[in-house]
Amino acid sequence: MRRRRFLALASAAGSTALAGCTIEAASESERGQGPTITLEPVVEGVTFPTGLAFLPNGDHLVADRFGVVMRHTGGGLVERPFLDLRDRIDLDPEGEKGLIGMTLHPEFANNHKFCIRYSAPRREWMDESRSHTAVLSEFEATADLTGVVPDSERIVLEIPEPGAQHNAGDVAFGPDGYLYTSLGDGQRSDLDEKATGEDTFWWYEQGTAAQNTEDNLLGGILRIDPDDPSGDREYGIPSDNPLVGEPGREEYYAWGLRNPFRISFDGEDLYVGDVGEHIRESVYLVEAGDNCGWPVLEGSSCSPPAPLGQSLADNPLNVFNPKTWQTQVNRISPYKVCPTPDGSSRGFRTPIVEYLRPGSRAVTGGFVYHGDRIPELQGQY
Q1: 326, 333 in Cβ contact below 8 A?
Q2: What is the pLDDT of residues 207-264, one digit of tens each?
Q3: Range of 329's domain?
Q4: Which residues are CB-neighbours of 179 under 8 A, at least 6 positions away?
Q5: Biggest alpha carbon distance in the chain?
Q6: Is the confidence at residue 162, as pLDDT, over 90?
Q7: Which strand ranges, in their side-by-side order, compose the sheet holding 353-356?
Q8: In whole angstroms, what is the distance from residue 337 CA to residue 356 CA?
Q9: 163 within 8 A of 218, measured Cβ to Cβ
Q10: How many structural domains compose the chain?
Q11: DSSP characters for 223-242?
């Protein structure tokens, strides 16, 4: 598959270029510390890239948080936007709102459909306390793949967002053909205000966006079928979603996440990068029905936070990042049990890796590499 030929980075820090990775030769002493990676520009001239897709004709689509999807060919970036949403997005240049996710339909080669996540102004039917609207839309590309069919937008899902931050916003089709999208808690964890003094169990008594699966669609991963609208909805609910027939919103696949900025699949494995609050950054291997614990947990630590290492096994896992070999990253147990007010216990899914976050080195997610250009990264996330 073409996308496996290089690692493309969609920066969440305002980079103006997408980069591909190559590996340089390293000495024997350096090999023990991992490979040396260099970055080569692939696409330049994008303000704030948030997504990358590979078209069947070899072109690339690059999503820009400022509201456009650009097309990149062998000759460079095409000046005219492939898709222009600047007339309908709610953009916060210094925050997280904007065009924040993009993925091609599994049958794109035949139906030319693709999905976009973007922030829109608050709808009239929403409470005035809402900040904006999280929109999941489907578009259709033209037959020559140079743009979008006019008026082809089909709004699949709209979600009231309480805050301007913690929007997450990734979209990906799984191997099952269903669409997965990530939602943050919308800044509705009340962590700083509530988790003080002896009020340790506030999250059980009052609930939060990420733990409330009945009244909102925030703080989790949703799984829907955009190809099978049902009733007054523009999507269907897979029959094996974990809350089908149970209390809670049936769209949920997993919950208890703070800001799951990026998700990716490796076969049937779903990886989620969740941005932490004060102490830890986490990567989860998520399964149906998982509760990842936020804000009861930050990473693997029960609230109030405990020092990194308290519940970690002595099995270091190297992760490629700017301070790879100085960063403490460990494998941890799959479930963490936290106490409850009545003395019972409750288990939560914990990260497969986590690391400290000095300087706000937020995790944004990644991919498991299966290319042949960098053998040392084979099978690594």
Answers
A1: no
A2: 578 888 998 999 999 999 999 999 999 999 999 999 999 999 999 999 999 999 999 9
A3: 2-25+34-377
A4: 103, 115, 136, 171, 172, 173, 223, 224, 225, 226, 235
A5: 65
A6: no
A7: 260-266, 269-274, 280-286, 353-356
A8: 21
A9: no
A10: 1
A11: EEBTTS-BTTBSSB--TT-T
Those residues whose C-beta lies under 8 Å from the C-beta of residue 79, and which sit 6 or more positions away, are: none
Exposed e or buried b per residue across 129-138, where buried means at least 16 C-beta atoms within 10 angstroms of its C-beta: ebbbbbbbbb
Length of the chain: 381
Q: Is the bond into 304 cis (omega within 30 degrees of 0)?
A: yes
Half-sphere exposure of 177 (CA within 13 A, CB side): 9
Average pLDDT of span 358-376 = 85
Are 102 and 115 a contacting pair, CB within 8 Å? yes
Question: How does strand 220-224 pair with strand 252-255?
Answer: antiparallel
Closest CA to 152 of 199, 111, 212: 111
178 three-state secondary structure:
coil
Q: DSSP characters for 77-89? A: E-SS-SEE-TTT-
Kind plus residue range of the DSSP H or E element containing 27:
none
Rounded Cα gap, residues 126 and 24, in angstroms: 53
Return d(Cα 271, Cα 279) in angstroms, integer.
20
What CATH number should be reported for the domain holding residue 272?
Answer: 2.120.10.30
